[in-house]
């Protein structure tokens, strides 16, 4: 009530002042003349009319002073509406030095001057010494500093306040505010203003909020990777707060993609490749800088700041930027537009749009999060035998931490298992297969890597309905036992089985009550690697000196062949010449042209069919799906053998074994889980035998597993000896009695 009364009194006071001004102007004008805008207009009007009305000189001087005081107020409000390009146009509260702020007040000792940043109701006009203390202790002391400028606190009516019941805007404590030097926003609190400026710096915004431009050069730093320099923002590793995301931890991912592109560039030249999400442009710059004339690189991004940074990074690496039609119309001159080995095309479009408009041989998708929203566009125009690579960073959903998100994005039901990384890779490939099949295209998986931060999938595109049908048939459901974690892919066919638990090798359903297995998927059930392609990637990594990718590629080759590292050889001429992928022959440097096609002869087709059959037979032994963690299945109270020795023991038992990059303690094998545990138990030692060396645990009757005796016979021998021991114990007890 008191506030309303004060507001009403203030409104009445303003109304009385307006009435007095109107009466005063009416007395000076005399008659029905229009009201004068200022004292100068009144004096001119009087002189031109030559009337008998005499106005004292003191009143004219007072009116002139009032006009001079009123004019700066109007200019202050007009300056507030200007763009805040701070070196040129800025608000009067933004100054470099205190002397610049005092110049606005025009301090004179013999005259009273008002404060340029306070209204008359708050601070009345005073002499210079008092006004100097006011500017220094209030406005300058609580200012916010940014790049040599000070954003002083402002008490003018720049910031709109809520109107009262009478419709008037009243001045209150909320009228004090700061003007942002970057976006002209009005912020009330000083701490909020500091955070507001920091957000602008992190995003690289240095002008108006509607037309953001690059930050000054001093706020950028240059990062070098694989002989490529790129400029990055201070917070380049935080994707939510920056437009140009650069993650140094993804260096291995970039090297793997480069090796895949280098292999494709060796098959046919030149190839058109697309980096759909450029950010800083580091990946596309590495392609163009090392592969030169073999590739035509296009870097795309939908953010204007990122596109500007990509162009500057191109010039930083002495690359020319190809002008497109839109840039030429706007008058931009980024390069001479010549198409040569050092030219990169930079586009500013949505990724789906650029992939719909043009066709490419190589497409890489690396969005922030899932990439399923761009799969349909990627497979729409990709050329035959081209490659599509995608990096998925939504590991929370793929690694079964957010199962509902995985169901929403990938249409896949997954749970947390010991092989969750391979489960994630197969879920992504299943989504890729369905997207390719909708475009009448099939895929062949060349590479699937799932590490801590990302899931990388590289596939080759095979056009035609037949490859599409073959790929779609490999998308199946997985039966997973929740007790022993045994797993098996569901058999092909549409018929419903009475007891699907019979497909599992374990007998947990018979010994445990209730339902013991879950149905996961649909998942990709085919191979995850192509051995020939991986070997060529390894050669490219050695050629270009990619040290971080070489150990991983060696592990992938061993995993694809399901062999131990001791049997791995870098130079295998037989495998280098065998480059048949899904029945499609790929030209390699070591293969002559005559071995591919003999023109004009029907016999050539028979030769190709025979070679395809032989190579399919050689490649038919795919690596077994999934792996077992040796720690997960260790026996309590037993010391298990070293991993490499265990691989040797399992291989001697007649099974295919290899290590896997998905899990450092994982073993990829075609042995059932029961046999896996049996071999592990056989070569484990008791924990209480400290001095005993590693070796086999001798089974009863000196019968060793793997010598032609089945495990069931060993169990029967154990039961017979235990029964004899029980009988001897009973006889001894009777003799004692």
TrEMBL record:
Keyword Plastid: no
Principal place of residence: nucleus
Positions of region (Disordered): 1-81
Catalyzed reactions: guanosine(27) in tRNA(Tyr) + 2 S-adenosyl-L-methionine = N(2)-dimethylguanosine(27) in tRNA(Tyr) + 2 S-adenosyl-L-homocysteine + 2 H(+)
Compositionally biased residues, Basic and acidic residues: 13-31, 46-77
GO CC terms: nucleolus
Gene3D superfamilies: N2,N2-dimethylguanosine tRNA methyltransferase, C-terminal domain, Vaccinia Virus protein VP39
Extent of Low complexity compositional bias: 1-10
All residue ranges annotated as the C2H2-type domain in the record: 180-200
Official protein name in the record: tRNA (guanine(27)-N(2))-dimethyltransferase
Organism of derivation: Motacilla alba (White wagtail)
Organism lineage: Eukaryota, Metazoa, Chordata, Craniata, Vertebrata
């Amino acid at each position: 009530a008191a506030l309303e009364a004060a507001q009403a009194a203030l409104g009445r006071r303003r109304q009385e002042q307006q009435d007095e001004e109107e009466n005063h102007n009416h007395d000076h004008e005399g008659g029905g003349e229009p009201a004068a805008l200022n004292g100068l207009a009144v004096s001119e009007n009087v002189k031109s009319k030559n009337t008998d009305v005499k106005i004292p000189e003191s009143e004219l001087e007072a009116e002139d002073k009032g006009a001079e005081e009123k004019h700066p107020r109007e200019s202050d409000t007009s300056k507030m509406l200007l763009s805040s390009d701070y070196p040129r146009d800025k608000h009067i509260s933004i100054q470099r030095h205190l002397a610049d702020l005092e110049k606005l007040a025009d301090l004179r000792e013999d005259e009273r001057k008002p404060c340029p940043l306070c209204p008359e109701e708050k601070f009345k006009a005073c002499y210079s010494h008092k006004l100097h203390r006011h500017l220094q202790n209030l406005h300058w002391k609580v200012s916010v500093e940014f790049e040599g400028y000070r954003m002083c606190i402002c008490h003018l009516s720049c910031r709109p306040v809520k109107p009262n019941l009478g419709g008037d805007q009243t001045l209150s404590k909320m009228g004090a505010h700061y003007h942002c030097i970057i976006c002209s926003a009005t912020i009330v609190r000083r701490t909020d203003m500091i955070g507001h400026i920091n957000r602008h710096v992190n995003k690289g915004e240095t002008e108006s909020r509607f037309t953001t431009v690059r930050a000054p050069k001093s706020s950028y730093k240059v990062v070098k990777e694989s002989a490529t320099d790129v400029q990055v923002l201070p917070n380049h590793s935080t994707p939510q707060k920056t437009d140009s995301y650069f993650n140094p931890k993804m260096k291995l991912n970039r090297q793997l993609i480069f090796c895949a592109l280098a292999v494709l560039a060796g098959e046919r030249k030149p190839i058109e490749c697309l980096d759909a999400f450029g950010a800083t442009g580091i990946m596309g710059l590495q392609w163009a800088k090392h592969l030169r004339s073999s590739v035509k690189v296009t870097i795309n991004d939908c953010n204007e700041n990122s596109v500007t940074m990509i162009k500057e990074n191109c010039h930083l690496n002495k690359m020319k930027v190809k002008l497109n039609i839109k840039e030429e119309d706007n008058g931009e001159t980024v390069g001479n537009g010549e198409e040569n080995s050092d030219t990169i095309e930079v586009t500013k479009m949505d990724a789906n749009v650029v992939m719909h408009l043009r066709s490419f041989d190589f497409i890489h998708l690396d969005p922030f999060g899932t990439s399923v929203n761009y799969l349909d566009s990627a497979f729409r125009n990709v050329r035959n035998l081209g490659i599509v690579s995608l990096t998925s960073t939504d590991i929370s959903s793929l690694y079964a931490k957010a199962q509902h998100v995985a169901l929403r994005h990938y249409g896949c039901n997954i749970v947390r298992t010991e092989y969750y990384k391979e489960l994630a890779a197969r879920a992504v490939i299943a989504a890729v297969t369905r997207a390719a099949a909708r475009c009448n295209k099939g895929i062949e998986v060349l590479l699937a890597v799932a590490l801590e931060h990302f899931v990388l999938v590289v596939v080759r595109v095979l056009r035609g309905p037949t490859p599409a049908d073959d790929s779609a048939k490999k998308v199946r459901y997985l039966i997973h036992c929740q007790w022993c974690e045994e797993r098996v892919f569901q058999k092909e066919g549409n018929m419903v089985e009475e007891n699907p638990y019979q497909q599992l090798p374990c007998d947990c359903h018979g010994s445990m009550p209730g339902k013991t297995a879950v149905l996961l998927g649909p998942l990709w059930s085919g191979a995850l690697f192509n051995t020939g392609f991986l070997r060529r990637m390894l050669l490219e990594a050695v050629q270009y000196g990619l040290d971080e990718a070489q150990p991983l590629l060696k592990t992938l080759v061993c995993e694809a062949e399901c062999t131990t590292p001791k049997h791995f050889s870098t130079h295998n001429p037989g495998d280098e010449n065998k480059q048949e992928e899904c029945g499609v022959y790929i030209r390699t440097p070591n293969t002559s042209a005559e071995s591919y096609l003999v023109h004009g002869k029907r016999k050539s087709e028979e030769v190709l069919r025979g070679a395809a059959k032989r190579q399919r037979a050689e490649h038919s032994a795919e690596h077994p799906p999934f792996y077992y963690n040796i720690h997960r299945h260790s026996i309590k109270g037993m010391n298990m053998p070293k991993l490499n020795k265990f691989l040797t023991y399992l291989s001697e038992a007649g099974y295919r074994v290899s290590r896997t990059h998905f899990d450092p303690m994982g073993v990829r094998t075609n042995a059932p889980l029961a046999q896996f545990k049996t071999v592990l138990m056989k070569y484990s030692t008791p924990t209480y035998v400290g001095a005993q060396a590693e070796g086999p645990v001798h089974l009863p009757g000196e019968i060793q597993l793997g010598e032609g005796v089945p495990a069931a016979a060993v169990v029967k021998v154990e039961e017979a000896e235990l029964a004899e021991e029980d009988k001897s114990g009973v006889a001894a007890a009777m003799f004692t009695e």
